[in-house]
Amino acid sequence: MKNLLVAVSLAGLSMASVNAMAGDDFAKYDADGSGTISMSEAQAHTALAEQFKELDADANGELSETEFANFKG
């Protein structure tokens, strides 16, 4: 049981760390601070620009932080 608790705790910490890093990246690309990343802002990172349409799940022309979390770059 103790090993299970340790494993679950480590998994939770890992996910929190990944989410924190994604949030830092999101803020870096959201140059105007609007809370979304536009295609023009995405152009700052080639891989992000290439994946933009795929990531834009609601097809509104902007990436929310939730959509950006799926970015693999």
Summarize the structure in words.
It is a single chain. The protein is mainly alpha-helical and 73 residues long. The chain has a single domain, classed as Recoverin, domain 1 (Orthogonal Bundle). It has 4 helices and 2 strands. Strands 1-2 form a two-stranded antiparallel sheet. The longest helix is centred in the first third of the chain and has 28 residues. It starts with a helix and ends in a 5-residue tail after the last helix. About 25% of the residues have low confidence.
| Unreliable sequence segments | 4-21
Per the principal axes of the C-alpha atoms, what is the gross shape?
globular
Q: Measured on Cα atoms, how large is the radius of gyration?
A: 15 Å
DSSP summary: helix tally: 4
CATH superfamily: EF-hand
Instruction: Determine and state the CATH class.
Output: Mainly Alpha
> What is the architecture at the second tier of CATH?
Orthogonal Bundle
Mean pLDDT: 79
Strand order of the biggest β-sheet: 1-2
The biggest beta sheet is recorded as: 2 strands, antiparallel
Summarize the topology.
Elements: H1 2-29, E1 37-38, H2 39-42, H3 46-55, E2 62-63, H4 65-68
Antiparallel strand pairs: 1-2
Short description:
With 73 residues, the chain is mainly alpha-helical.
Which descriptors would you attach to this protein?
73 residues, mainly alpha, Recoverin, domain 1, two-stranded antiparallel sheet, 4 helices, 2 strands, 63% helix, 5% strand, globular
